Amino acid sequence: MMTMLLWRCPICGTDDALEYTVRWFRPDHVHCSSCGAVWEVTRVIGDDYRLKVIAGDSAPIGLELPLAEWYDRMKAGFELAPIEDDSIALQANELLYVKGDQVPLIVRVGNPLLSAWEGRGAPMGPLAEELSPKWDTVGVGQLYFTNERLIWQGEQGACDFWWERVNAAFTWFNEIFGIMYGTTTYRFQIPGQSVLKWLTYSGHLAKEIESASGHTIAVSHY
Amino acid sequence: MYTLIGIFTALLSLFGRLLYRMRVEGVENLPEEGPYIVSSNEIGRMGSIMTSVFIARRILRGLTVAPVGFAEEYEWSGMWGPVYDRGSARPIFPHGRGQGVLALLTALRSLREGKIVMMNPGGEMSWDGRLVPAKRGVAWLGLRSGAPIVLVVATKGAYQVWPKWAKRPQLTGRFQVRVGKPFRLTDSPCSKVSDEMIAGANQRIAEEMTALIYR
Question: How many CB atoms lie within 10 A of CB B123?
Answer without folding.
Answer: 24
